[in-house]
Fold these 4 entries.
Entry 1:
Amino acid sequence: MRPSEDEKLEQQLDAALLDFFRRNDSGELTDREEFLSSHLEIADQLRELLDAADLIEQMAGPRLSQLAETATSIHPDEIRRPGMQNEDDDFSLASSVDADEPTLQFFSAQPAVSQSNPPTAVVSEADPDSQATPTTRNDHSPGDVSNVSPGNTQHVLPCRFGDYVLQKILGRGGMGVVYLAHQVQLERPVAIKMIRSGCLAGQEEIVRFYAEARSAARLDHPNIVSVYQCGEIDGHHYFSMDYVPGTDLSRRINKGPLTPRDAARYVRDVSRTIAYAHSQSVLHRDLKPANVLIDQDDSVVITDFGLAKLMGTDNGLTRSGAALGTPSYMSPEQAEGNNELLAETTDVYSLGAILFAALTGKPPFQGSTAVQTIMDVIHKPAPSVRMSHPAIPLDLDTIASKCLQKTPSLRYATAQALADELDRYLKGQPIQARPLGRIYRIARWLVNVPIIAALVGVQAPDPKAGHRWTQRLLLAMFILLLPILGVAGVGMSRWWSDHTMPRHVAIAAGVPTGMYHSLADAFAKNLKETTGNRPTVYTTEGSQENLQRLLNGQVDLALLQGTSVRSGQVSVVAPMYFEAVHLLVRNGKSIAKLDDLRGHRVAVGTLDSGTHQAAAILFENSSVTFSDFDAVLIDVQEVGQDPTIDAVLAVIKVGHPSIVGLIAENEFSLLSIENAQSISLNEPTLRPFEITALDYPSAHATNIQTIATPAFLCCRSNASSRLVEESLTAMYASNEPIEGLIAAERAARWQGLPMHPAARRFFENILQNEKERKNRF
């Protein structure tokens, strides 16, 4: 089918437009009219399209890559200011900015004032990152932008921007562009940073831009770039900063590795500066050589706080799962997007990567693509400095290796600790970090064996012939020993799971003001001290919710009322304390026993609480049921707020402040449960109990007969023995005993409990030791 006349015309226009833009971008085109005269058949239609393109460009702003530089070309040793990075250095999985298509419209109708009228340097769009060669423009005066038509792809600097004269581009980054400028009123050189997308910047981009300015401005330190002013001019957001002539660490490293002492001195000074930022609760999160400026006095100045974050806050700028930073210098947790794990040790890792690059000339990880680099950062062990540069001092290799550990807790805890360590090296004193042990070095060598790397979930960093021969030997041995390995593997798996501690122990507690929660907090504190683990205590509605979380695998440990320990999937770690059933009646109500509750409003605890469950068992063993009265599902601590409640059932530790408060205000009195003995015989989890007059002196009552249920610390039946053993140690052998806890000697005498095997062994040892002590005497 032949194309119609309209289709032919459209194809001609498309071809002509493409030719125009190609020749215009490359600098071949000098006159638009001359170009139109070469396409006379479609000149009118082509002119309309080009005029429309001019209008769009005028509204959106000229390409940043088309902006001109001044006659003074940028010297290689000249400083790049905050935000200017190599284009291929920046990487952000969360960035909405297209670094390859920046737009910026900053031209003012007022030309820049120049006494010397220097020739103007022009950067062509075809090569936006090249250093322009100064060329003299004879068609108009320098800085006069009035003669530059919107359709022309070449623009000039200097130009006026508010109180500033923009003189030349110092650098470009993923989000911003930085200019050398002259502040007119104060007559000083400054650096001006603007958003690359100019008037088209989105709200998130603007918020992040000003967050960078605020982060830097809150830091008052001689080695951190000073922010002077920020604001908006003609729709363009900017902030001005101190201009520091010099170079940066990236350019120094690009010339070759630094001497060990220079590398240690630079990183020490950077670490001290970052330690100050951390003391002000600011994480940098984008430390790399390009952001370490070196001034003319050979001192470091830290810049580019575009990814900085206030510790302990969530400013909404970093989405969960977003990897922000520069791949070769970001920590593994940063590369994984685990932003909730970012802490001071995140910057410590980046400082270690900078030290590695300064010593070797390249970062520890540098894949063929940004994504490959991120995968290497996450999965591969960091290489040793001395592997490629054996002459590097062992102490510096040790310091860099400690910084680059995958696990944050294995790094230097603070940037100040790293600075102190490097200072010890520079002073010739012994460092505190120890070199990697032989086993660790062997393990790191074995990871280069491809089959071993695959088994441990990493990529073989750099397999050599020896690694491949080792792999062949392992495969041959595996085939010969496969039957034995199968049996041993099952046993080893069981042994390993039984001797492994969860990375982060999760504990289901109860309501924040309840006894369960206070005991769980005390237990978690002891567990952290004895194991170094960081337990998490979850607030819940009570025993029933705790049981469900335990069965669902959401928590490792849970506090359960004795009546809840009925599932074969749950085992007892230890009894913690007794909770007595308190029956309280409002003074003046005709309630003398359980049967008298009929027709009254009775608080029976929340639906998932142990109180509600114990109340159900209590009424199952009496003539009263829930349908005989108005059951109110509230906690005992809320009773005082409802004057219509006539009675309260609460399963709680004797002497709890909430019960004391209800009695002390002379509103409620305690009643005995007359059939407590028979109920305990029917329910093995309940025991007869007596509340004495001394327990509640303000009650002015005799001893109260009731029932009690123990509260247990429980785990799943298949929980590891290590978890149970460490939990028992935290309960009974910690330096700070848990107040109100049943003593281990008494707990050891309990019979008939579904104990975890490790707990049973623990308490049997206590009984055996007690027996041996008695025999000795």
Note: Residues 178 and 193 are 4 Å apart (CA to CA).
Entry 2:
Amino acid sequence: MESLNGLSLDELSHVQVTSVSKSPESLSQASATIYVISQEEIARSGATSLPEALRLAPNLLVTQVSASNYVVSARGMGGNPVDQNFSNKILMLIDGRSVYSPLYSGIYLQAQNVMLQDIERIEVISGPGATLWGANAVNGVINIITRSAASSPGGLVSLNAGTNEQNVDARIGGTLDDHTAIRVYGMAFHRGAEELADGATAEDGWDNVQGGFRVDRTLERDSLTVQGDLYRAAENELNTPDGMLYGGNLLMHWEHQGEHSEWQLKTYFDQTEQFAPAGGPAFVLNTYDVELQQNLAAGSSQRIVWGVGERVNVYGFTNSETLLLDPTHRALTLGNVFGQDTFALGQSVALTAGLKAEDDPFSGWALLPDVRLSYQPGGDSLIWAAGSRSIRSPTPFDHDVVEKIGDLTFLTGNANFLPERLDAYEIGWRGEPVAVLSLSVSGFYNDYTQLRTIEPASSTVFLPLYWGNLMQGTTYGIDAWARWQITDHWRLTPGFTALHEHFKFEPGASGLTGLAQAADDPSSHAYLTSSFDALGRLTLDGTLRYVGALPDPALRAYYELDVRGAWKVSNSVDVSLIGSNLLHARHLEFPVPYGEYIERNAGAQVQWRH
């Protein structure tokens, strides 16, 4: 059981992060809007799945649509499924392995499962990260970093039983020799079906079984990590056979620490297979990736990072009667080279400039620049400003898709579809005005062009429709949060995001389905977490979250509350009571028919560690 004594505010501000510059740096010096979800926060939240853990980041909006389907977005652009527009402008990595799907552009969040007890931290960046992480890191980057095998020895078993969720997690770790540690884990998860508008069951229960391993070998100047996972998931479908999801991955990461530089080589293989109910579309996607990176210290005032990478996505798609890809098989090769230089302009001013050149299989080469200026006036305060460019690259769903109604071709892809582009401008401040309070405030202005639209075949022939790039828009707003250590035993963490969106069609656009096709985002969302240590062995935690109204399709604003009370029975056994969505017996987070009513859940958890 984690206590507030685990990480003080000062320690949290000096946590080492890697997502901003692809090299270790103190959070207090990172010139970006970044929130770090610690292991302490995850443990105390009572979260039982990765999407629920991501709700802890105030700069993310996590929306549950069904028992298995979650949507995650940052600074808007969360999609609008009514118009086949999905959240596709945020990148997620697990230990450096991208889980962004090149098939449709987005994240199959239901396929991403991590044993929460083995997460070291989750770094959440709002704003573009394309210069380092590549295309599709448009509005943000989520980097999930797990613990090394050496830092998680012994055994752990966690059992959770709730009214709508049950899961079991087990892990054992140890050493093979003085330099090598190993960890093996297994987990199983079940969530019951949610409800339809009339109160009937949606019959969309979700089951997931996953296992994996990690081996870490550390020598004086070299370290090697090999890790992998296998999973199988099943989603119940209303009046049809279950949908199935299978997958696995294997990753190798080598680091060499020299006198003045560090080399990293990372390579991984990832396979995802999805089988829809009888007659539905299915696919198999294999990803092969290799990346080489060097971090170089050029004197005491300059830090250079550069690298090259190649990724090959090989897929086969099984067409259904209504959804087809033509061709059904492709091998998509994505190459890149990048460099970034951070150098001091004095004792308290630093300038970072970077550029990535990326060769997309559909749209060719793209240049993705980033410039950041930071100023440290004293103490742990940091003022920073940035200008960046990022793109959402085309996919087979943009390029090759064919949708039919009976024998009628309703919509086709566009062989000339262009990348959606963002030019982003940010300014922020982070600091600790007093010892018990840390603050982060940032403002952003995003200029989008070449956004996807739906266009008729011609001025005289309506069908088939096709994807165009005839929308542009601007968004602006603020991200803000704080950590307030009221007493040694009580901490409050409030967070708030305000968002304003303005879209318009370019000349020649049809305007079909209106501007709402760009996104259906709330103008604000907020949360407040309270963490309290009581009576030595008892902890009480609660998170109240607010999501503003959705404009089109409309959904009124809502509040929800999650709580957890935990008792440390002994040094090896914790018992906790967990409640989620406690303010309503059921509630909507996205309008019907695409959203289902999410039910209240209450349960108990027992965790044993040795």
Note: Residues 39-45 form the longest helix (7 residues).
Entry 3:
Amino acid sequence: MTLLKSDIIFKIYDTLNQGQIDSIKTTEGPLLIIAGPGSGKSLVLILRTLYILIEKKAKPGEILLCTFTEKAAYELKERIAVSAAKIGYKKDLTDLRISTIHSFCNEYIKDFRHKTKLGNNFDVLDDLTQYFFIFEHFDEIIGNKKNPKDKYLGKWKNKWTTIQRVVEFFNKITEELINVDDLITSADGFLIQLGKAYKKYNDVLFTENKLDFSQQQKVFYDLLNDPDVYNQITSGLKYIMIDEYQDTNYIQEQIFLKISSNMKINLCVVGDDDQSLYRFRGATVRNILEFKDKFPPKMCKEFRLLVNYRSHKTIIEMYQKFINSISWKDSKKGLQFRHNKKILENKGTKFAEYPAVFSIWGFSKSDEGARVADLIVWLYEKKVIKDYSQVAILLSSVKHEYSKHYIDALNLKGIKIFCPRARNYFENEEIKDLIGCFVFIFNMYDELEKELENRESDYYQYLIECLNFLADRYPHGTTMANIITQYYKKIKNLNPSSTTDYSLIDLVYVFITSAPFLNYLQKENSIRNLGIFTQLLNIFHQYYKYNIITGKNREGLKRSFFFSFLRFLYEGGINEYEDEFNPIPKEHVQIMTIHQSKSLEFPVVISGSLNKRIMVRKEIDKQLSKFYHRTAFEPLNRITEFDRMRLFYVAFSRAKYILVLSTETEPKDYFKEIWQGLPQWPYVQKDILKILDFEFEEKLKLKKIFSLTRQVNIYETCPRQYKFFKEYEFVPSRSAQMLFGTLVHETLEDINREIINGDKKLITDLKIEGFHDFNYKMLLKLGFAPINPAQRKNALSQCLNYFHENYNDLDAVQDAELKITLERPDYILNGVIDVLRESKGGYEIWDFKTQKKTSDKNILNKIHRQLNTYAYLLKQKIGADINKLAIYWTNQKQKTDALTEFSYDESLISSHINKFDEVVDKILEKDFSIIDVPENKTCNECDLKKYCLTIGTIKLK
């Protein structure tokens, strides 16, 4: 058998330029790769990874590739697999570590959680839930105003404004590793209050077992400062490659410099300072500009990828002219704020001579929109483009004031648009109807009218419109009217001591049993939006502490929901659903922000917003910069100019064949250098344009990732449950049963982790009870419904029984919660081994089940299939024998009763995998038809029971 040699890479990819080749072959020591637009940086990262593997410099699990987004991570993984097949590399790549920086940090925090203040199953707040977390603990963190004329922290009048702004300050304090005591001891009254609030915020955050994205990085950074943890983390790494390094922040820089201070780890960063866009998220371009300075002279190598393989030469010339139209120097300080570089056209790509760059100048918004729509229709009718998705309209913002005139003009032409971040969520019919239902059942009409009498408000007017929108179509006597009238009366007639057994989420599952919602559930976008609404309601229940509707909380719930929660969402706007596996749907013109377009390319780009004022907020840096660990870099008075140039440089460089600069009025002065002299649509050389024929490039199809227990098994139990709760991400209302099982699993994991990390003699009943109580408390904080004392006692009893019944051979436990991956041609299947035990020179795999022990052959066969597949994958990975597979039924007191054992049978693997293929194929085809009705117990405990009864799927007594 001929061994694969790395030169095969350069034979197969024989058009690589010298900069790319050098970047791939240079593997040792720190490396900076400056990669201009369309220069093939992703290909370099892919081939560099394969080069390292073929040269046997590292195993897959010793290589980490950090990307900016989850989508980029998925895409990079798929492209590596495609390239590996192309060059004939057939070894297993499942251990290759490709993730965002946040996911990378989170992975290690979970592994070393016992070294932090965090409990099991800690929650990571996203941008929205961070706001509501502070709202929930506002008095504790920010404090009350002594009188109405006071300002919160001496700066802001409004509560929600305070929350939005203070989040930016808190994140910056964390990301810059500011010593908060320096703020508290400063002479600035605002900073003193801010520092105290930040300390309280941190205390509450950890008490509630939560992290925000910034603290997630800080906790990992602190772990790296523990010598024992640092050694364990770095011992498993040899190569780190970071994409989009220009968009990293200070703490991220410090994390990777700290890791790579282990001289065995080779750090490579890739990026382009001209495409640095995320200052508003804490990123700083200086990380890439000063990267080489972090190492001894001549130690860090640098290569530049400057050949553009994407764009027509006229487009390249134009965006280079634009970026060079200002000075990037500070002569007094001798600083340069960008790498000098000249982007080169690819001589191997032959573009025709045609007007690749031209302009549109409307007399008004509507006129500009009409001209843009005319151009797109013309390109499609003349077959210059094959699909509307080949056109992207890029704007500095896609809010209605920026995007509406384009949307209206395209709608008039019958052209579909895709603009999920226009924050138009609340304008969708299904959401207006849903909100109309809630307005009615809580009898809000008179209160809203009074609010409108006192002050004008788009929000209050919107709520009334939602009610009228529903009432006009579903008057008295219709099924919908009967349903909401029934619940209106139930809620109205509650006395202070009475209670219901339903929450706001439960009401959604009632409403969907009737038109118009029965119709909405058949429409892709509508059902997605309804699923999002249940997620929002879950946030409301979690942070406002209203689990069910009662006579006592009815008025408070109503005011919190309509006058605080929903109003904040409406005024801030909510984005619609985006499929990360299909971000550019066919047959739709894309309307997106310039930030969204980063790393994408389109045959035709229409760049708008040329007449808009682009501002950069600098207040936080002004207030906090003196507490940073390094002196100021870019002059404050030039930051707006620099960021504006970078923003439109990114927009212009997304275009492949045609770039259109579009404006409704005269563009800003800084575009004059490139605007003047451009031909204007429709007065361009159409006869040349119309003979062009842009090929439609099929985008790489990303494999979807499925969980065996949380997805495949749910589909097999009930395809409709899968449809709602997994495919469309509705939130189930009832979670007590889920809490019980999770509580037992987490406590058993704590016991097994303690055994793996130490001595079983240190584990006592009291310690196990502590694990159990802490996990229960933290699960409640995650929003799980509480269980009664008898259930809690039962859960603890199951954990204690496991410990005592297995005490004599607990030393056999080798790993817990071990992740397993099955990679198939069309999907990736993930699973988790609850416990891996050593046994007779091999291993045993145990799976915990908290429900009653069963002899049902269908259930047992399904579990056997799962464990047998895990065993096969583990054997392939570690090369050891698997001696036993077992279910451990934790509700059985005696170990002999608790174990159901299976033999490992490799001959069955093919049929097992075929079964997974069959299930996943149905999921991917969105075949959620119910052939066999689930057992009564499953249906009785399901939120969809009333829906299934209504449409005739089930008939329950």
Note: The longest strand covers residues 827-839.
Entry 4:
Amino acid sequence: MPNGGAEASVRTYCFGPFRLIPERQLLLRGDVPVPIGGRARDILTALLDRAGDVVDKRELIARVWPDTHVAESNLKVNMNALRRALGECPDAPSSIETVVGRGYRFAAEVVVSQASEPASATGPLAHHGNLPNATTRIVGRTEAIEAIQRELSEARLVSIVGPGGAGKTTVALAAAELLIERFRDGVWWVDLARLNEPSLVPDAVAAAVGLATHASDRLAALESYLREREVLLVFDNCEHLIDAASASAQRLLAGTTAVSLLATSREPLRLPGERVRRLSGLESPPAGAELSATAAAAFPAVRLFAERASDRLETFRLNDDEAAAAAEICRRLDGLPLAIELAATRVDALGVRALSQHLDARLGRSRQLRGGHERHRTLQAMIDWSYRLLPDGEKLLLRRLSVFAGSFDPEAACELADGDVAERARTLDDIAHLVEKSLLATEVRGESIAYRLLETTRAYCLEQLRASGEEDAIRRRHADHVCAVLEGASADWVERPSREWAQRYGGFLDDLRNALDWLEAADADRSLLIRLTVAGCFLWNHFSLTEECRIRVTRALEDLAPAGGAGTPVEMRLQMSLAGATMFTRGAIPAALTALERVHDIAVRVGDLDHQLRCLRMMSSYELFLGNPDGKARSLTTFLRLAGAADPTALSAGDTHMALAELFLGRLDTSRQRLLRHYRRTLKDSNDPRFARFLYDQNVDIGNVLSHVEWLRGCPDTARQITRETVELARRTEHELSLSNALAWACMTYLLSGDYRECGECAASLEEQVVRHGIVIWRPVATFCRGAVAHARGATDAGIATLEQALAEFREIRHLARMPFYLGVFAEALARSGRLADAEHTVRAALERVQLQKEHWILPEILRIQASILSEQGRRGEAEQALLEAVARAGELRSLSLQLRAAIDLADGWRAQSREADARRMLAPICAAFGEGFTTRDLIRAHALLGQLDEPAKPECRSESVAR
């Protein structure tokens, strides 16, 4: 592997305002990266390599697609994308010349330089955001774009309003690209066109900004996530979800300080402070004006028509004889860019004059027959006219393609065909023809091309599909296709790296939703609905759409028995998804256990080992949350037996969770031994698809439990270091359950250590996770730690009230693990505030819980707290007995930290009784056993007390800590 000092040779091609650096896959205009697909960049590189020469089309195809047979239309699509990317510069369109019948030539002057730079060098940092690549040259919208930029510096909400086809999305994208530098935390594109359900607007926003959330209240999660971030959100295509888009925008703007919003719609959002920028058609020449071609092209509408016509027919040049007809076309189309672009695609077949005559007749009939806004009718008529000019095969394909919610690849389009080889071949040819006619838009995705219908065209074609009587058949094929893809994704999940898997399959979410909506509404084949729901669980779970998953799975389970699926592996998978979603978002409620028991019964009967193991692991978590470590241990004993016999890869996960049960049971040594077998061992990282096979990242699980064990054993510095590393590791996983789990354990470790600042910070982060992801099982932990820290810092009444709230939350969701500890802390807070009777009652409840839940790990601390209450009540003898028992029990547990706490209180009491010698003899050896942690609150207090006893102990290292 080359070292950091290695150098590589880097070429740079300079032409006009552009620089192309092939080795860095980077095209710059000045210092600003230009979005461009990989194929278009390869074409540009090939032309620049031979600047001035004609490069044959076949040669270009062979160079850009060396191992793939592609049609010439692919070259044309990418060439148009390249020209449009370069078209931001006025002189760029002539840089690439078409040599009819042969190929292309790069005609502009090119300067090539060669330099060396470190092999690790990279291009400029990518801007934050997810803006689509803009490959269309914008005509006539400079003033509007500049105005939008100004308005967004003065207001937080700007809406671009206009009729369909006016170019609202194009203008919004152009303005957003120019605003990237202004927004520190990014510019994020939210495409609402794909949504049919208003409730999914917050999901679309969350997906766009990269917020994976389990929360049922997505807007609350978004508010929390965006509260301090400086971002621009672009809500595109709001009109069909106007109320939901407006409500989401209003709440996000009200709940944040630095979020701005740019919306596109056919009507304003009607919110306070909204600036509305109305977008009309492009300016056309006045009626009756006699203009030359040059004068006509000075009007943006005609200029757009001429450019798009030349894209369609490379030899086209608008002449003086055609100028009046071109102007008439643009006027009759109200200057609407989309309508003009559609009309321009017919120039090669009709010529400009004949095209004008056809349009005149078509638009005249449309305006006589239809109601509604005139410009809407104009666009509708234009799409209708373009559609009716198509051959029957292309009409059929366009209707079928309208069922796709977003983009699709050629293979997906072929799945909607009748199935034979000849039909598939015709489908591919028809796709190329529809692209050439601007009825399909292309999206270059790295090494491949995807297609999509513009929303106005898609809406029209859906109407045609319904009218044709073939909708049910095509919808069924679409659902079958989505199901097959997602079932393949399920299999792929165990092989493909996590992030790559998400990139490959994330785009199917909207098609999944549309297919399920149709299957539910049409009362179609319930078995397909159930299969599709099962396949969709991987997508919902991966993208943390837990509430959506719960709703869909619940509906599928209702249909299961009538469809004959009860007791099958299908039910097993659905119940497993339901159990996880229920437990983490609603608590350890009986419904979760019922689902798990059903999973286990089916998994045993059908011999599905993986689901048996996953179920036993989740059952152990359920038992732990209920405060039953014995039950957890029983589940894990079965887990380890099964894994040892048939799946050794699962043994480490079982060991880790058995160590957790042993920790609570007070078996610290055996717990630690289990953990050290795996600590710092090379494990699968978070990009492995199965890294969270058993709910959490395994490294995080190990670190959580080990940090507690090490603190209890008397290694507080080691415990804190492990805690910091574990939280950082959990953040890197980008897995919300793992991070919330790590934060919950870190809160406890820091609280036990008396590190109140760190505890408070972790509690705040955990609360944010709970709000964002709805993982309510950890909500009371954050509340409790916030109350404990407040009380420790002197806010007595507020702290007690918050602790009381947390205990109620724990009971409400049946999260009883560590309940003896929580009650003990609450009892101590009550005693310090003078409420001794309440404190005594609470500490007795804590001791009862220790015995009931067998949480022996914390018994010495509860006894110490009981002693402090007894002492405040004047019951000195009982207090001393409780402390002596606490010291002895901590010694039996080999918990040096808890032994020290009890010993400090006992020695302090003996000092008050003038028993200094007894106090020194008891406390000094315990202090001396510590080999670290000398800056912790407990050891500082212990050494200060020894100093008061006149014989300060000298610490010596006797504690074995984790090898670093």
Note: Residues 285 and 601 are 76 Å apart (CA to CA).
